Amino acid sequence: MTYGRSVTSSHRCGGHKSGTATPNKRLQRTALHAAADAERYAASITARAQSEYYLWDAIVHSRLKFALNSQNLTILLMTIEELQAALADINNLVVTFQTSVALEKYYAEDTVMIEGDGTITTGKEACRQGRAIFFNEMLVEFRESRLISQDIAVSADHSYDFVVVSNWYNDFTIRYGEQIIDNKSNQLSIGYWKDGLVVKESYNYPVISMT
User: Fold this and answer.
1) Taking the model in full, what pTM does it have?
2) How many helices and strands in the chain, by DSSP H and E?
3) How far apart are CA 35 and CA 46, in angstroms?
């Protein structure tokens, strides 16, 4: 290198003692180290960007079961496509009045259901009993249950994986004591999914006054 020859020339002239780096050489070393650090940093940034791109690409196409929640990586046990398939099955079971089958297949053992009047039912067994009372003792005729819309979101709350909001139109008649009550209304259901199952669901609908 030209710089090396200039150092030798400097030594010959007695400008510096042998073994002592010149200011220019020290500056060169500093510059080389800074360049190397910058190169390593640039490489790490590039690798991170590529990693995040491929991860996001995998998330979008559901090749991996991950989601980015509040900048933290959360492992999910089902993809969006798998959730959509489960919801399609649930929706078909609901419109064919087989909600008990849906309960057995897709709800956690400790699931929590919150009714429109605030009543909370905890556990699948208690939910079974509630459905049995409604269908066997109260229901006179169930004419229609129709899905109006359904939206899916990755949950920002790490207690859940997904939140599903479903708007249903229901038309049925029930018997309560001596009363016969016709009901035609919309019901907004909010389901919270974790590890492939519904762990909580709330139902928002006009509350029927029964005396």
Assistant:
1) 0.66
2) 5, 8
3) 16
Q: Which helix (H) or strand (E) holds 47?
A: helix 23-61
SS3 content of the chain, % helix, strand, coil (to 5): 40, 35, 25
pLDDT reading at 75 higher than 70: no
Residue 200 one-letter amino acid = K
Q: 171, exposed or middle or buried, with CB in 10 Å at 0-12, 13-18, 19+? A: middle
Note the Cα 171 to chain centre separation in Å. Answer: 32
Cα(161)–Cα(59) distance, integer angstroms: 14
> Are 35 and 41 a contacting pair, CB within 8 Å?
no
How deeply is 16 buried, as exposed, middle or buried, from its count of CB atoms within 10 A (0-12, 13-18, 19+)? middle
What is the distance between the terminal CA atoms of the chain, rounded to a whole angstrom?
A: 100
Task: Give the model confidence (pLDDT) of 2-49 as tens digits.
Answer: 444 433 333 434 444 445 556 666 666 666 666 666 667 666 655 655
- Which residues of 61-176 form beta strands (DSSP E)? 66-69, 72-75, 107-114, 120-122, 139-154, 162-176
Decide the pairing of beta strands 107-114 and 197-204: parallel
